[in-house]
Amino acid sequence: MTSAFANAKKQIDSAAILLESEYDDKKRFKKAVELLKKPQNVIRLNLRLKMDNGKSARFKAFRSQHNDARGPFKGGIRFHPGVSEDEVKALSTWMSIKCAVVGIPFGGGKGGVVVDPKQLSENELQQLCTKYSEALVEDIGPWKDVPAPDVNTSGREMAWMLEAYEKKMGHQQPATFTGKPLELGGSQGREEATGLGGFYILQDYQELIGKLVKATRLAIQGFGNVGYWFARFASKAGYKIVAISDSSGGIYGARGVNVVELAKQKSEYGSFSKIPLSKNQKFISNDQLLTLDVDVLVPAALENVILESNAMETKAKAILELANGPMTPEAEEIILNKKVDVLPDVLCNAGGVTVSYFEWVQNLSGYYWEKDEVNKKLKRIMDKAFNKIYEMKKSKNISFRQAAYTLAVKRIIDAMMLRGRM
Question: Residue 322 belongs to what domain range?
Answer without folding.
Answer: 193-343
